[in-house]
């Protein structure tokens, strides 16, 4: 059993390494960057989707850590998902006048302002709006929180998951306490939704809805 568990986490680690480092190296190669913006973000979306699919498959095949289960609808679960979105909205309203814009968000805005048309569709709506939230929920809630489930009475699963979620958004820009707090709270909120529903789909729905809402606000602000 322990060999199977170790193999599972090794597979997860390799997929994460490929996603975070491999894609970064591949899409910085000169011949890839010479593509038009539309084709560049199209292929980036395809590569990201492949990583999401592979991660989903590995989690599904590891029965002891199964979180990819048949969707179960309950109004209470939907309520938790909506509550998570509202809490994110309230946190954003509270944090915006107090904390500076995160470096991660500033970097994203710079990229979005430099692309148009199909590239913006693939980059903002598909990658940032859908694929990235699904990937992050599978990793930070599905893998991390499930691995720490035995410690949930101490809320350790929530704290570790939210901390890693926040670090994942700021690590490439260097440490910033305000940036860490900015992303740590949404990580707690999404973890709360996952723990309350015990279904990854509801935290995914909250995360996708939030990122898509931000994409919509950005689109409207450019008109």
UniProtKB/TrEMBL annotation:
It comes from the Bacteria. The chain crosses the membrane at residues 7-27, 39-60, 75-94, 114-135, 156-175. Residues 120-212 form the CAAX prenyl protease 2/Lysostaphin resistance protein A-like domain. One of its GO terms (biological process) is CAAX-box protein maturation. The keyword Nucleotide-binding does not apply. Keywords: Hydrolase, Membrane, Protease, Transmembrane, Transmembrane helix. InterPro entries: CAAX_protease, Rce1/LyrA-like_dom. One of its GO terms (molecular function) is endopeptidase activity. The keyword Membrane applies. This is CAAX protease. The lineage of its organism: Bacteria, Bacillati, Bacillota, Bacilli, Lactobacillales.
């Amino acid at each position: 059993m322990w060999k199977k568990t170790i193999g599972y986490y090794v597979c997860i680690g390799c997929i994460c390494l490929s996603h975070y480092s491999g894609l970064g190296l591949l899409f910085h190669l000169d011949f890839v960057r010479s593509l038009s913006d539309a084709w560049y973000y199209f292929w980036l979306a395809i590569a990201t989707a492949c990583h999401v699919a592979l991660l989903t498959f590995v989690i599904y095949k590891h029965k002891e850590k199964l979180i990819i289960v048949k969707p179960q609808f309950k109004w209470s679960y939907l309520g938790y998902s909506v509550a998570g979105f509202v809490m994110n909205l309230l946190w954003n309203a509270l944090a915006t006048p107090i904390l500076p814009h995160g470096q991660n968000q500033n970097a994203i805005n710079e990229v979005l302002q430099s692309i148009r048309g199909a590239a913006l569709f693939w980059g903002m709506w598909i990658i940032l709006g859908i694929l990235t939230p699904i990937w992050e929920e599978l990793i930070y809630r599905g893998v991390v929180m499930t691995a720490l489930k035995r410690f949930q009475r101490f809320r350790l699963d929530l704290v570790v998951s939210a901390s890693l979620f926040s670090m994942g958004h700021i690590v490439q820009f260097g440490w910033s306490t305000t940036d860490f707090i900015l992303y740590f709270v949404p990580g707690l909120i999404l973890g709360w939704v996952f723990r309350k529903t015990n279904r990854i789909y509801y935290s995914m729905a909250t995360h996708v809805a939030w990122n898509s809402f931000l994409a919509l606000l950005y689109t409207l602000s450019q008109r």
